[in-house]
């Protein structure tokens, strides 16, 4: 576990922290004294959560995702079907799933799942030569 933590690129972490700090200061300077007081605190919380996810995913073995890409893809399709059956309407579209007080758009998650599934497919097809008509055209 410690070896994976050591593999995280320090320059990337420093650049992320600098960009987070600059954006927090910018948001604070724009909203200071106005109706949106505290917006910088909210963004700081979002950045903190995102940074924890970044570190967690950096420690995660991505080969497990490639191994189970088909099952993750099928689960994503099922979740999209659940949206059409049980989704809530927000902003004029039935595109949101409500789980307790948390709501999210599964279509945004499915974009990542689709990238994972296609990359897994292309890795499996890499053993043979790709043909445009057979392999690329059906993906469109």
From TrEMBL:
Alphabetized GO MF terms: lipid-linked peptidoglycan transporter activity
Pfam families tied to this protein: FTSW_RODA_SPOVE
Residue ranges crossing the lipid bilayer per the database entry: 12-31, 43-62, 69-89, 109-126
Highest taxon listed in the record's lineage: Bacteria
InterPro entries: FtsW/RodA
Recorded topology in the membrane: Multi-pass membrane protein
GO CC annotation terms, alphabetical: cell division site; plasma membrane
Chief location of this protein within or outside the cell: membrane
Keywords per UniProt: Cell shape, Membrane, Transmembrane, Transmembrane helix
Subcellular location: Membrane
A GO biological-process term: cell division
Protein name in the entry: Rod shape determining protein RodA
Originating organism: Paenibacillus typhae
């Amino acid at each position: 576990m410690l070896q994976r933590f050591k593999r995280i690129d320090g320059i990337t972490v420093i650049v992320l922290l600098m960009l987070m700090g600059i954006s927090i200061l910018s948001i604070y300077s724009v909203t200071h004294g106005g109706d949106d007081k505290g917006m910088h605190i909210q963004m700081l919380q979002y950045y903190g959560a995102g940074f924890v996810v970044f570190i967690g995913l950096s420690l995660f073995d991505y080969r497990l995702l490639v191994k189970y890409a088909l099952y993750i893809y099928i689960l994503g399709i099922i979740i999209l079907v659940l949206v059409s059956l049980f989704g809530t309407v927000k902003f004029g579209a039935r595109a949101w799933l409500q789980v307790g007080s948390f709501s999210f758009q599964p279509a945004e998650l499915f974009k990542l799942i689709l990238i994972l599934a296609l990359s897994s497919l292309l890795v499996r097809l890499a053993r043979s030569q790709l043909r445009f008509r057979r392999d690329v055209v059906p993906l469109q």
